[in-house]
């Protein structure tokens, strides 16, 4: 009887531990972007769930793999996500491809165009709805207070930049004139220098690189994301036997 009780308690403890491990969920979704000029790691914002979920979905489907950065402007941004670019001929005009739906705007004051952020491209539709696949990674440049004052007056129709925006644009840099007009839905955690390298390539009259720069993307698994967040807190990643064993009973997705 005592042995039976011990076995039952051990089973309960085992199930509780398994449930605890399986219940862990990362705070964010992360996407590894690989390019001909280097790699970078993207964290998607939870404040823009429509854009986040759509980007994760397309990435898992392999939608972005082998696509080009088809529009590159130095000190501004690098743009990709046009499916027509996968097999594009030399000099072919690009920038109009994508799924047959748009994403409703999720423009927020606290999410702005500092260097290293990702924004959703769009056409001139009045609702500022985003392209479902085309995106840009911000390079931009550093601004002075005088330059920001001028932008407020002549480009932002009198709307003032917050102290946080001003500090970012005067130190890290970015593209402040896009704020309020396009949805920003994530930021690079590393690899910003990759954007600089892509932005340096020579381009034609349509801003398309003369030498193709391709991309591929992968969404980090649940465990990879959890370990990334642990390391950000100064903790060791969980890679032991029991973690790997319990992970066998949980989905890699989340």
TrEMBL record:
UniProt-listed Enzyme Commission number(s): 5.2.1.8
Keywords: Isomerase, Rotamase, Signal
Domain PPIase cyclophilin-type: 27-220
Gene3D superfamilies in UniProt: Cyclophilin-like (2.40.100.10)
A Pfam family that the UniProt record links to this protein: Pro_isomerase
An annotated GO BP: protein folding
Gene Ontology molecular functions: peptidyl-prolyl cis-trans isomerase activity
Residues annotated as signal peptide: 1-23
Catalyzed chemical reaction(s): [protein]-peptidylproline (omega=180) = [protein]-peptidylproline (omega=0)
Xref: InterPro entries: Cyclophilin-like_dom_sf, Cyclophilin-type_PPIase_CS, Cyclophilin-type_PPIase_dom, Cyclophilin_A-like
UniProt function note: PPIases accelerate the folding of proteins. It catalyzes the cis-trans isomerization of proline imidic peptide bonds in oligopeptides.
Family as reported in the entry's similarity comment: Belongs to the cyclophilin-type PPIase family.
PANTHER family (alphabetical): PEPTIDYL-PROLYL CIS-TRANS ISOMERASE-RELATED, PEPTIDYLPROLYL ISOMERASE DOMAIN AND WD REPEAT-CONTAINING PROTEIN 1
Protein's name according to its UniProt entry: Peptidyl-prolyl cis-trans isomerase
Native source species: Sphingobacterium wenxiniae
């Amino acid at each position: 009887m005592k042995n039976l009780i011990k076995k039952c308690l051990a089973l309960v403890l085992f199930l509780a531990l398994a449930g605890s491990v399986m219940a862990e969920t990362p705070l964010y979704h992360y996407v590894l972007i690989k390019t001909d000029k280097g790699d970078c790691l993207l964290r998607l914002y939870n404040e823009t769930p429509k854009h986040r979920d759509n980007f994760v979905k397309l990435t898992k489907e392999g939608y972005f793999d082998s696509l080009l950065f088809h529009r590159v402007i130095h000190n501004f941004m690098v743009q990709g996500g046009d499916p027509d670019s996968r097999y594009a001929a030399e000099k072919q005009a690009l920038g109009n491809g994508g799924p047959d739906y748009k994403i409703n705007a999720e423009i927020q004051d606290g999410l702005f165009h500092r260097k290293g952020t990702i924004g959703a491209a769009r056409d001139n539709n009045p609702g500022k709805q985003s392209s479902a696949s085309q995106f840009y990674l911000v390079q931009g440049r550093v601004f002075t207070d005088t330059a920001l004052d001028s932008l407020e007056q002549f480009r932002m129709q009198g709307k003032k930049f917050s102290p946080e925006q001003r500090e970012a644009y005067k130190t890290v840099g970015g593209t402040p004139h896009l704020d309020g007009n396009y949805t920003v839905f994530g930021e690079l955690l590393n690899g910003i220098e990759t954007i600089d390298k892509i932005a340096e390539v020579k381009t034609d009259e349509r801003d398309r690189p003369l030498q193709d720069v391709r991309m591929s993307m992968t969404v980090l698994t649940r465990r990879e994301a959890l370990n990334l967040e642990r390391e950000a807190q100064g903790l060791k990643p969980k890679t032991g036997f029991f973690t790997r064993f319990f992970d066998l009973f949980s989905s890699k997705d989340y």
